[in-house]
Design goal:
It contains no helices and 11 strands. The protein is mainly β. A hairpin with a 5-residue loop joins strand 7 and strand 8.
């Protein structure tokens, strides 16, 4: 059974940091791009960032570029783990963060044809 399991969310003050993890299991994720979307209350799901299966290319939404970083640990073929390090968090970063995996790659400011989704982890940034 394919699973994308997120962890690491929580409550933090503005200017603080959090690190989210996404553990992907249940199949080989070689050749899959893995990344993150977020959904704030009352808003649609928004692409945040992604990393290709080799870890050579990353993709970004402009508002988080320079504050967030993404990395991938693919040493264990049975479980790929992707990390999202979020620094200098702002109240507008408050959202449910969902992990996503796809054979497709982000283009422009979006990412479509997602094959797998995680259930999400809540990130709340207080002002």
């Amino acid at each position: 059974q394919v699973q994308l399991e997120e962890s690491g969310g929580g409550l933090v003050q503005a200017g603080g940091s959090l690190r989210l993890s996404c553990a992907a299991s249940g199949r080989s994720f070689s050749e899959y791009t893995i990344g993150w979307f977020r959904q704030a209350p009352g808003k649609g799901r928004e692409f945040v960032t992604a990393i290709d299966w080799r870890g050579e290319h990353t993709y970004w939404e402009d508002s988080v570029r320079g504050r967030f970083s993404i990395s991938r640990d693919s040493r264990d073929n049975a479980k790929n783990t992707v990390y999202l390090q979020m620094n200098n968090l702002k109240p507008e970063d408050t959202a449910v963060y969902h992990c996503a995996a796809a054979l497709s790659r982000p283009h422009g400011s979006g990412w479509s044809q997602i094959d797998y989704w995680g259930m999400g982890t809540q990130v709340t940034v207080s002002s």
